[in-house]
Amino acid sequence: MKNGDRPIRNPFVILREEFDDWAVLFDPDTGSGFGLNPTGVYLWKLFDGQHTIDTLLELVQSQAENVPEEAREHIREIREFVDALAREGLVGPDSNQYRSFCHRDSAPHQPKQISSHAPCPVCEVKPFRYEAPS
Question: Does the predicted model carry a pTM greater than 0.85?
């Protein structure tokens, strides 16, 4: 993806979170799966077409536990992560093709925001320990 693109998740892709905070993305159209570590899960939940890659890094730095000083250098890893998801058709640039919001809201999600409704499995953000996304 290009600088300034705002990744948005493919609304047909299923996120399955596991007990250890890792997850699997499943694309029912292709039958392919993609594993995510906790940082990748956090990023996936923010792929709403509202955040640039730089903004995503800032959000990770503000929300994750034990973020190292050199995390700013991980912007390359975040771009590579987004590009890998895009190659698989799991995310795309913000467009009507992938426009998707929580089934209960008409506005994008903000991390750690208290909501009046029960958590949506896609937008619920859990505390996580930082590691480069994969």
Answer: no
Please state the domain extents for the chain: 8-92
3-state secondary structure of 82: helix
What does each C-alpha distance from 87 to 43, 59, 69 come to in angstroms?
A: 17, 24, 30
One-letter identity of residue 116: S
What lies within 8 Å, CB to CB, of 93 at 6+ separation is 1, 2, 5, 6, 7, 8
How many Å separate Cα 40 from the centre of its chain? 6
Please write the tens of the pLDDT for every residue from 15-62. Answer: 999 988 899 999 999 999 999 999 899 999 999 888 998 888 888 888
Tell me which architecture the domain covering 8-92 has in CATH.
Answer: Alpha-Beta Complex (3.90)
CA torsion through residues 68, 72, 77, 83, sign: positive
